[in-house]
Amino acid sequence: MAQPNRNARQWKFLDIFTAMFFSLVLLFFLLVFTPFGDPLAYSGRQALLLSTSDPKQRHRFVSLVELGEHRQPIDPCPPDSVDHMPCEDPKRNSQLSRYMNFYRERHCPLPDEMPLCLIPPPLDYKIPIQWPESLHKVWHSNMPHNKIATRKGHQGWMKEEGPYFIFPGGGTMFPDGALPYIDKLRRFMPIKGGIIRTALDMGCGVASFGGSLLAEGILTLSFAPRDSHKAQIQFALERGIPAFVLMFGTRRLPFPAFAFDFIHCSRCLIPFAAYNATYFIEVDRLLRPGGFLVISGPPVQWPKKEREWEELQAVARALCYELIIVEGNTVIWKKPDRDPCLKPNEFRIGLCDESDDPNVAWYVNLKRCVTPSFINGGYAIGKIPGWPERLLRAPSRALIMNNGIDLFQADTRRWATRVAYYKNTLKVKLGTPAIRNVMDMNAFFGGFAAALETDPVWVMNVVPARKPLTLDIIYDRGLIGVYHDWCEPFSTYPRTYDLIHVASIDSLTKLPGSRNRSCSLVDLMAEIDRMLRPEGTAVIQDSPEVIKKVARIAHVLRWVTTINNKEPESHGRGKILVATKTFRHL
């Protein structure tokens, strides 16, 4: 019998080992000394970015992007993130307290806990239908969520029809459409004539009520939480209606005192008299003296809700609200326009201390006290100019600021000139059907929005919470907006704005009066990318040094950019970056 050839086996093993060794050496040289290594290294970096386990690696990557030492595009987020809102994440928030719906309010991850990636659109995403056609129909493929159409179709909310979702204009309390409902309200309220301009619709559904009021010259900010209906605010924004994701829970709503001429609740199910009338008191803080409060649905003359209805009326009486009408399941009250009136009551409601600033409303807990309106008097309905005169007239609340009237007038003139430059020289498509939903991330007095008033747009004016609180002046002008801290994600769905504008973007990442950053410019611009629609426009102003950095970041976001001089009438050395978000299926 032949003996086994042990040497042959040894040589075979050594050959394999040697081949593997030299293959690894060759791979090392390829990775280090040829471009082949870049994509692999890039993918490795991106994998780290999708992980929250290594904050140092994330910080290093952000620094490389800002310095221009990393130029490959940022990778997409996972496909299931197409509708991701970092601060309204049901999985993250589900373990929080249910008390007063705390778990459904904003709860944001720390920057180091968020993956740095680009939110992809749905697979069959299309450029949105333009305004005003979008008011009545949107692409089904852009938000393929059939739940509302299935559950609420019989109430006139929306229905699926071919490749579209169709919006008949109805709601739970007005299934035949918002227009007949508004006609009912106009019998008791000055809907026309410019007396009422700013409105808040709480628990708005798909915002057909606010959309219908636009024809009356009333600008309504509609809000609802991310709840079992999931995409109601997403549908509203796709339609081109002003809307915002928000939960009425444990905190003040992010608006200044006496902002709204009209507040509306149609089956919003907010327990206004609960918790010692805390929710009604917050509505009172937001409602302008002489303004109107309309509640339709439970508990107004609702079966088995008699106790809640009695308590609601008792709160209104305690705050001296004038009962205009109770008709069916709808009640209309008018807030007194005189000095604060507070009657003895069972809810232990008192006046707020003078040290309480009613305009501070960013992460401030609800308070069980009434804000005296005389603190900033002279702006009740009937005392302020009607619409549109109030847009360009300096309001009385501007007097509180040093040289407030002069600043207001100069700001109005500056933005009228600058917006004309955007349109005529930079060829930004403002004033065309291509742009409907607009955001100003650093609004100050709202001069940018005021300059767009004749355009078919609406503007979300954002006043940074760490800057002077000028949002009350914006509302006095008849415009709308919110407070926000730009070191956190905004409460909106991805792909909801056609144009996002920001002046002095670098200041949004810093503490007031400090050069130290509290967040990164990369994260802020990634958030702009999340909010911006494909083929949407970003217009960013700042110093040449900052704009150069912004352009480097824009490159890794896959934006197409141009850098331009400021308008000739402007002083200073600032630059303007105009960017287009590419239509990409990442």
TrEMBL record:
One of its GO terms (molecular function) is S-adenosylmethionine-dependent methyltransferase activity. GO terms for cellular component: endosome; membrane; trans-Golgi network. The chain crosses the membrane at residues 12-33. Keywords: Glycoprotein, Membrane, Methyltransferase, Signal-anchor, Transferase, Transmembrane, Transmembrane helix. The keyword Transferase applies. SUPFAM superfamilies: S-adenosyl-L-methionine-dependent methyltransferases. Its EC number is 2.1.1.-. InterPro entries: Put_SAM_MeTrfase, SAM-dependent_MTases_sf. GO terms for biological process: methylation. It is found in: Endomembrane system; Membrane. Pfam families: Methyltransf_29. It is a single-pass membrane protein; Single-pass type II membrane protein. Its main location: membrane. Belongs to the methyltransferase superfamily. This is Methyltransferase. It comes from Gossypium raimondii (Peruvian cotton).
